[in-house]
Design a protein that fits this description.
The complex is a heterodimer of chains A (about 210) and B (about 100). By secondary structure, chain A is mostly helical. In chain A, about 70% of the residues lie in helices and about 5% in strands. Chain A contains seven helices and two strands. At the A-B interface, helix 1, helix 2, strand 1, strand 2 and helix 4 of A face helix 1, helix 2 and helix 3 of B.
């Protein structure tokens, strides 16, 4: 759901400002929470997210979609700001080097995929973790992609590009399916890390501890 | 960085590069959810505001060769790793000195 240039009318600077404020918060989070132990994990996941965003999976209706990765980062680093940081790095490089997402749309793309994806993933998992680790991760990751796409449709309708109902229906339909891809990969990556380096995972998703709460 | 973390970094990068190498061959070329919506709602095509050096992950002049995509994605994956590692290290160091 990388928004290209030209779809936001005159509204794009609003999102640049929101994204810039969020990026400052994410840098503050990084300076307070990153240490020698989790820096390699953050860097590897950022590289993996960049690569997997190029792996579009076909879905019905002649469409395709790819993982975003914000929920994964937010859950593993126990903070939505971590997702804002990682997705901002990925989206800035994608925009400037590959033209994937417009430069004027960089703000809206960080808002949708970084901020909304990260916050929905984080608070979704926080709310649902009582139902069990895997279903909670699955639903939180699905909701992160789905709600980011709904936000995208609403933003494009505010800009006058999409009619609201048709835009939300179309984006929602496609991303309800793409969200399943997001959910499956998020669960697989967390289980994979849990197998090779459980010490890198926080208590709330590590299998070392039984789910309390 | 201790050996365990270095091995994790190398292993993780290997998986990311594996995906980057396969993506140009395996990825669907169908429009994504947003592009499909743009098409079905008949929104006029828009122009990019900025000319990126490697548009659509293709090397200019070899747009039809998937190897161009491989090179471009491998470089991008390494670049993201280096930028994330550098930024995170810089910030985590700053944090440590601030606390003392």
């Amino acid at each position: 759901m990388h928004v290209p240039d030209g779809l936001l009318g005159l509204t794009w600077p609003i999102y640049i400002i929101i994204a810039a404020v969020a990026v400052i918060y994410s840098l503050k989070w990084a300076s307070e929470n990153l240490d020698e132990r989790n820096v390699p994990l953050l860097a590897v996941l950022a590289a993996g997210i960049f690569a997997i965003q190029a792996m579009n999976v076909p879905i019905p209706w002649g469409t395709s979609g790819h993982m975003v990765g914000a929920a994964l980062i937010a859950i593993i680093f126990v903070s939505p700001w971590a997702a804002v940081l990682v997705l901002s790095i990925v989206l800035i490089l994608q925009g400037f080097i590959y033209g994937d997402g417009g430069i004027t749309a960089l703000g809206v793309n960080i808002v949708n995929m970084g901020i909304i994806g990260g916050f929905v993933g984080f608070y979704g998992y926080k709310t649902l973790k009582g139902i069990g680790r895997i279903p909670a991760i699955f639903i939180a990751a699905w909701a992160a992609t789905f709600l980011a796409s709904i936000a995208c449709a609403v933003e494009l309708s505010i800009a006058g590009t999409f009619p609201l109902a048709a835009g939300v229906a179309s984006m929602g339909l496609y991303h309800a399916v793409i969200g399943v891809i997001e959910a499956v990969i998020t669960v697989v990556v967390i289980l994979g890390i849990d197998r090779v380096r459980p010490d890198l995972l926080p208590d709330w998703i590590s299998s070392r501890k039984t789910e309390a709460v | 960085m201790n050996t365990k973390n270095r091995n994790f970094l190398i292993g993780g990068l290997a998986i990311a590069l594996f995906i980057a190498i396969l993506a140009p061959f395996l990825a669907s070329s169908n429009p994504d959810g947003l592009d499909s919506t743009v098409e079905s709602l008949e929104v006029p095509e828009s122009e990019a505001a900025f000319q990126s050096p490697l548009p659509d992950y293709a090397i200019p002049g070899m747009e039809d060769n998937p190897l161009g995509g491989v090179v471009s994605l491998v470089l991008g994956t390494i670049l993201v790793l280096v930028v994330a590692l550098g930024l995170a290290k810089l910030l985590s160091k700053k944090g440590n000195t601030k606390n003392e």
